[in-house]
User: What shape does this take?
Amino acid sequence: MDVTPLVTTAELLNNIREWHEHEFKSDPQYRYSNYVNGEGVAPAKIMVVGSAPNTDEHIARRPFVGVSGRVLRQMMALSGIHEPVRLAWPPSPQPCVDAWLTTAFKFRPPRGRHVTYGETIKIRQPLRNEWKAIGRPKIIMPVGTVALYAVTGQRLSMMSTAGKPFPMQDSFGNDLIIYPMLHPSYALELESARPLLEQHWDEFAIWYAQQH
Assistant: This one.
């Protein structure tokens, strides 16, 4: 009897990496950009999706290790889905609890620009493949507007949806929960937004505890 070997999570993630490098490395603006893979628990219960790596993450080749990312990890730790955060640089690996951290786009956009609409459309299928590779978690948390579009395919307002879980179905009709969150950079740039960010994470902690 023929037995088809199981494809491991590492192999699936490597396939995604090869796709990204094939699609973008021929473009001069990405030729010297480091690929930033996701990290965390697999199989995961929560997939946390940012938009794209910044300079710190490009250097470290890890997601969410810049200033905004470490704020996000602090919020996750307070919610019980990340170990306590050490703020030293360079960042050392710190384990998530239940979660997988990644970015929709895997390379740092040049000159600090945002990921374009066309780029976001292109990476939606590889992001879906990454979701499958880490065990199809039922909760997906897009952080910021670009991630929200990459996850849902809809141009939704982050300010209207942040901190409010809503249902969605995968391609097989299975129920998912999308839980958008404000990007921490918003609270760093606008000090008055910090209480709102913390409120959303406090509410998430209560909501997530009720899911068990």
Q: What stands out?
A: Residues 140 and 178 are 5 Å apart (CA to CA). Residues 1-5 have pLDDT under 50 and may be disordered. Residues 9-210 form a domain with the Uracil-DNA Glycosylase, subunit E fold (CATH 3.40.470.10). The chain has nine helices and six strands.
